[in-house]
Amino acid sequence: MSSLYASLNIGLTGLQSNQAALSVVGHNIANVQTPNYSRQRAVMGSKGAQPFGNLEFGQGVSLDVIMGVRDRFLDAQITRASSKKAGSDTRYQMLEGIASVFLDSGTDADLSTQVQKVFQGFQDVATKPEDLAARTGLLGAAQTLADGIRSRWQLLNDQRVSANQNLAQMVPEINSIAAEIAKLNTRIGSEVTPGAENDARDQRQGLANRLSELVGVQVFEDTHQQLQITLDNGAAVLVSGGRSYDMRVSPPDPALDGFSRVEMVMGGSVVVDVTGNVKEGRMGALLELRDVTLPGFQRQLDQLASGIGGQVNLLHRNGYALDGTTTGLNFFTGLAPVGANGLPTTVAGAAKSLKVNTVLVGDPRLVGAADTAGAVGNNGIARQLAALQSKANTVDTNNDGVGDSGPFSTTVGTLMASVGTTVQGLMSRSTGDENLMIALQNQRNRLSGVDLDEEAMQMIAFQRGYQASARFVSVINQLTDQLVNQLGR
Question: pTM (2 decimals)?
Answer without folding.
Answer: 0.88
